[in-house]
Amino acid sequence: MVLMKMKFPFEKRVKLAQCLWLLSWMATLAGAFTFTLGCFLKTELRRRAEVMDNTEIHAVPNTLMIVGLASLGINYFAGRMCQDALDAGRFPRWKTFMQPYWGVSLLFTLLMLTAVIMSYAMKGNLESSLKIGLKNGIRFYKDTDTPGRCFQKQTIDRLQMEFRCCGNTDFKDWFEVQWISNRYLDFSSKEVKDRVKSNVDGRYLFDGVPFSCCNPSSPRPCIQDRLTNNSAHYSYEHQTEELNIYIRGCREALVNYYMGLMNTIGAAVLSVFLVQSSVLVSLRYLQTAMEAVAGQENTEIETEGYLLEKGVKETIMEYVTPVLVFLQLNQVGSEDAEA
Amino acid sequence: MALMKVKFDLKKRVKLAQFLWLMYWFSVMAGVLVFSMGLFFKIELRKRSEMMDNNESHFVPNLLIGVGLLACGINAMGGKICYDSLDPSKFSRWKPMLKSFLVSCVAFNCLLVLTALLCFLMRIPLQFTLAEGLKNALKFYKDTDTPGHCYMKRTLDQMQMEFRCCGNNNFRDWFEIQWVSNRYLDFGAKEVKDRIGSNVDGKYLMDAVPFSCCNPSSPRPCIQYQVTNNTAHYSYDHHTEDLNIWKRGCRDALISYYGGMMNTIGALVLLVTILEVIVTIGLQYVNTSLSNLANPEDPESESEGWILEKTVKETFTDIMDKMKAMSKGNVVDEAGVDGVATVS
């Protein structure tokens, strides 16, 4: 039972070949576009690599770049094939090339679809990576004299100012961490000694945030320290004050930014996938229609084109059975060896 | 004695016309570039117009926009003339106005040179505008409840963070004005009353700067308050501390930003001028070579082309004589009319 048979008179074949040629050029440009999108996303992820714990999210841009490059090759050959399709004498030389070509192109087209799904599905992965990365960033904020961590303060300050956020989940994360280095604390003063004694680890904790949490849109000069103490500042109530410092946490801000980027890229790559699939379907019809012409004296006869010679199930069984036979032979062989 | 005479046969004429047509298309794109640069510069000035007291002169960007549009028009016409020059019948349509077109091209080139010069010189008035504008902007920092000034604080904070600068000349400008609004000052506290009593105008002055002056590259948390008081902070010496807050003043920062932009634009306009001069000279050659065919009936004959018919000195004296003759003609006419009037 042939899958999706269609009749192709000579003019229709010619039209199909011309259409396919144009479509394959569009698909080549789309492939280059996909590669560029992958490069852009990778650059953006690398810029904030210091606040990410792992690089698993880089699978998305890497896949996009591979798929973009592969589709350049796939569409180039599709264009060459349809140029030769109009000449019945030159088309048969592609015969041996077709089988591996279909395998490779189906693989990479499926990979494109996988990349689109990944760009939506990897939100959880990104969020947990950012959670750990930001926690470490805030912990090491004060270590500006430790090699390997001396730029942590600058990174976190610039991040908070650019993304308009404060802390990991929210600004209260700064209350749980000592973010002032011991080098700048006067250990002979009573206030410092009290604070250091008030907790088990001997850390200098207080209800203050760094200057990078300050919101420029606030009508009053920024209140950074004694945030939860209403009587410390004139006409100040911390429960209702919303404009003083950034309320949002940096994890939420970064996840929103990257998910927005990846959703847009996912939608664009989905349309590229549709273009690529239509190229492959048209090429299959052209190939089967031209194969029926081969060997005939009159090359302008009407032929039939189809997607699959047998039904879907039978075609799958055809490819899977040799693999199963190979596995069973292996099993039988190992049983014999044991016996 | 013609200036830079060159012999032309048909092949050479055709090659010149084709080359010139291509160069005219590049010039059209260069005109578009000048237009877009003028637009970009105008937008950048508008963005910071609050810092310039809404008083900045938009003459240079407007001139760039006008010159860009004019360049597109002139070069498109020049390209059309070159295209038609290969066909003698079409070229004869253009012949009468070609001389005046070339004169206008020369005038346009002078305008381009003037524009480039103005781009380089605009730095000076900008300096004065910015000094005045920033001084006033700092004064209105605290007026977040006054209509018309309520966004000054946000604009100034964002500008100081973006350009990495503090104050007008330097951070001490903040010590001389009251930048904390009276709404947030507790007039019952002794400290506030002392500070207000300490100066003639009754302003709350302190040696502190807003948070936007803080430098993120500093190894220690930002010291904004009591900046000049070494004893107020542990292990702090304000004379040697230069990473705490930004040292540079915003006037210097903005001037180097705009100055860099204007220098780039001026250099680009000079390059466009050179291109325009080349195409004008090329068009003059096309004009003269097609006007001086050895055999006027045969379009394939040889001809000569030049830039000026006589030498530079002679052409200059010719023009001066013409202008004198024109002005004398006017005087004689007026005298004649007066004479007739008195006689009658």
UniProtKB/TrEMBL annotation, chain A:
Subcellular location: Membrane
Ligase among keywords: no
Entry keyword set: Membrane, Transmembrane, Transmembrane helix
Matching CDD domains: peripherin_like_LEL
Domain of life: Eukaryota
Any one GO cellular component localisation term in the record: plasma membrane
Any one Pfam family match given in the protein's UniProt record, by short name: Tetraspanin
Keyword Cytoplasm attached: no
Transmembrane domains' residue ranges: 56-79, 100-122, 257-281
Membrane topology, from the record: Multi-pass membrane protein
Gene Ontology biological-process entries: visual perception
Sequence similarity: Belongs to the PRPH2/ROM1 family.
Protein name: Retinal outer segment membrane protein 1a
UniProtKB/TrEMBL annotation, chain B:
Xref: Pfam families: Tetraspanin
Key words, A-Z: Cell adhesion, Disulfide bond, Membrane, Transmembrane, Transmembrane helix
Residues spanning the membrane: 20-41, 62-81, 101-121, 265-286
Family (UniProt): Belongs to the PRPH2/ROM1 family.
Record-linked InterPro entries: Peripherin/rom-1 (IPR000830), Peripherin_LEL (IPR042026), Tetraspanin/Peripherin (IPR018499), Tetraspanin_EC2_sf (IPR008952)
SUPFAM superfamilies from the UniProt entry: Tetraspanin
Organism: Coregonus suidteri
GO cellular component: plasma membrane
The protein, known as: Peripherin-2
Subcellular location: Membrane
